[in-house]
Amino acid sequence: MPITPRFKISQTETQIIVTIHIPHIRVSASTLDMLVDGNDFHFHSAPYLLYLNFPGRLLDDAETIREAKAAYDPSNQNGVITVTIFKEDEGIWKDLDLLGNLVNRSASTHDGVPPREKIQVIASDNENGNETVSSSVAVPDDDSVDDFPEDIKSCLRPHYGFLNLHHSVFTAYAREGLSHDMLEIPSPDETPAEDRRELRLKTEVTKFDADRYLGDLFLSSDPDDENADMVFTEAMRMEAHWETDYSVDYLAKEMEKLQTEDERAETTGQISPDFFDNDEMHRLVENKAKIPPQSKISAIQKESIFLSLVDILYAYAYDHRTTLGDATCESSWTIVMLSPTLSWFESYTPPYDSIASVLRWSIRRALIHPYLRNYNFVASKLVKDVASILAAGKRVVLRCLLQIQKTLEGSEFHYLFNKLYISPYISWIQMIDDEDLASFASQVNECVLDGNCILSKSSLGLDLVTLEKDAFDQDEEENESESDTSGSESESDDSSSGDDSSGEDNEKKDTNVDNIDSVSDKPRVNLLDDQIGNGNLLSIARETTITTGDKAKVEPRLNKSGATTSLITEL
Q1: How far apart are CA 221 and CA 305, in angstroms?
Q2: pLDDT at 565
């Protein structure tokens, strides 16, 4: 079976340069085949085969000295061929770094051809040779009459996946018990799509842990706080890649500003440096998901795809921050569980479902399932992350999807989500227009940053406001009860000590005590109104803090009966 080689593409105003990596093979003129045909470029050198479809026409004309050429360098990475092809019309072609789009463009083109019509029997000859007119019979392409009723049955089964293109995956293909390991929805091949949301909301209510929520409500993000949660602190401080990555167009403009006029003349039309690394480019090429062409996807379907993308990116942003960008063995579970699209095969239906509702359901699940359940983190930080990712452009979105694909690929239970959702998303995001993504990103930005979304605690359906109020009221009652108890004990202790010291006070009349042992690291007492009882001074105190070196000054005073008592006048 042919192998798709690793390759890179660069361009100038007049040429396309394809750099193909074909290591450890013998290359000669007899073993290498190249063909330039209109928009298509074919390359073959066993066992490698590459077929690219470009957005413009290519030219291979020896008479005009615009012939395609190839140069082989065996010392470069054990074998690299550089192919230079001329453009028929000068200009810069966009999105040539989206390699998967070039590889799969041909499939999308063929998909645009109308499918072959079903064979319709108009008339036939019976056994006696008489021509009789029969009713119209639709015959499937494979001439199997049993497939037609099966197609009708398949339409009635619950569908899921990208654009709801799949059904019966877990009963017909997957191993037994896989759905239980990878999903939260029970019996995905039997649960109707219209029942999934109601079941999900009920399940979420039963799994919500009020104590865990209250415990994470006031987490500190101060790194100097000894009681701060390290995971939460680092997640809040982390500078994610979508906050530092820039689009290819932006980088090109910035580089152009640094060039002199001569340099600009020499490098006019060159694309900016590669945005994707080698592993990401290889994944773009190897992604073979089959999806309908853009012309076959309706506006409502496109909006639904965007809404599902929001909750997938939200789940990714949570995992990326809490793992500091280094996915762990728990990352696949985190991403799947936080996304209603993945864990429950949620399918959004615009205009009944909106950006705000998708974000609310994502926040809701983030307060139920993962390790960090701090409201400000999941309802503010992560929501802004989603808006930033979408606003950064399709390449940043692609990088997030590629990292999700890699994470799920290494999971024993969640690998199938790549086939159902992530791989089709990677193909689709390369096909859409930049304007469509920018328009949706603007809607998310208006919803999140401009405060047009209702993402309050009361909108999540978990009674968070009531829960917090009851918890705070209970704390206040407990504090008041403890304060009353400690006050009674203090008053009793002061009265007892006053009786014991009355004799000593009477013996020390007209005596000034100027110095008392400094009170260090001891509770400070704020004296309230004096109370005279049994000829002694009583004090009611509240505990605060006192610095080392504070001293009290005691002066004598006569009470109503003529006895002398000690009065603290300074503290």
Answers
A1: 35
A2: 45
| Strands of 56-170, DSSP E | 58-59, 69-73, 80-87, 119-120, 123-125, 131-133, 138-139
Structure tokens at 567: 């009065």
Neighbours of 300 (CB within 10 A): 12
Count of residues making up the chain: 571
Neighbour-count burial of 222, counting CB atoms closer than 10 A to its CB (0-12 exposed, 13-18 middle, 19+ buried): exposed
| Burial zone of 256 (CB within 10 Å; 0-12 exposed, 13-18 middle, 19+ buried) | middle
Q: Are 409 and 426 in contact (CB under 8 A)?
A: no
Please tell me the predicted confidence (pLDDT) of residue 489: 57
Distance between CA 59 and CA 39 in Å, rounded?
A: 9
Question: What pLDDT, on the 0 to 100 scale, is given for residue 30?
Answer: 84
Measure the CA–CA gap between 22 and 4, rounded to whole angstroms: 10
DSSP at 379:
I
Distance, CA of 351 to chain centre: 23
- Tell me the C-alpha distance between 196 and 185, whole Å: 7
- Environment class of 564 (CB within 10 Å of its CB; exposed 0-12, middle 13-18, buried 19+): middle
The reported pLDDT for the residue numbered 567 is 43
Dig out the tokens for 305 from the structure.
Answer: 């795809």
- Encoded tokens for 4: 């798709």
Q: What is the pTM of this model?
A: 0.74
Q: Where does 240-298 have alpha helices with state H? A: 248-258, 261-266, 278-286
d(CA 427, CA 70): 30
Predicted local confidence at residue 561, as pLDDT: 47
Residue 569: helix, strand or coil by DSSP?
strand
Contact criterion met (CB below 8 Å) for 100 and 34: no
- Rounded CA gap, 543 and 486, in Å? 10
- pLDDT score recorded for residue 494: 54
CB 145 within 8 A of CB 139: yes
- Tell me the H-state helices in 130-260: 147-156, 169-172, 178-182, 193-207, 210-215, 230-237, 248-258
| Range list of H helices, 323-448 | 331-338, 340-344, 355-366, 375-376, 382-391, 394-409, 416-417, 423-431, 434-448
Number of H helices, E strands in the chain: 21, 18
Cα(356)–Cα(447) distance, integer angstroms: 7
DSSP 387-422: HHHHHT-HHHHHHHHHHHHHHHHT-TTTTHHIIIII
Q: What φ, ψ does residue 206 adopt, rounded to 5°?
A: -70, -25
Instruction: Quote the strand ranges of 23-79, DSSP E.
Output: 33-37, 40-45, 48-53, 58-59, 69-73
For 296, the 3-state DSSP assignment is: helix
| 10-residue mean pLDDT series, the chain (571 residues) | 89 94 87 92 93 93 86 91 94 91 63 41 46 41 49 80 92 81 90 94 95 91 85 93 66 53 44 75 90 92 97 97 94 96 95 94 96 94 95 95 96 93 96 94 88 82 92 72 59 54 48 42 39 38 40 47 45 40
φ, ψ (nearest 5 deg) of residue 252: -65, -40
Contact 398, 242 (CB under 8 A): no
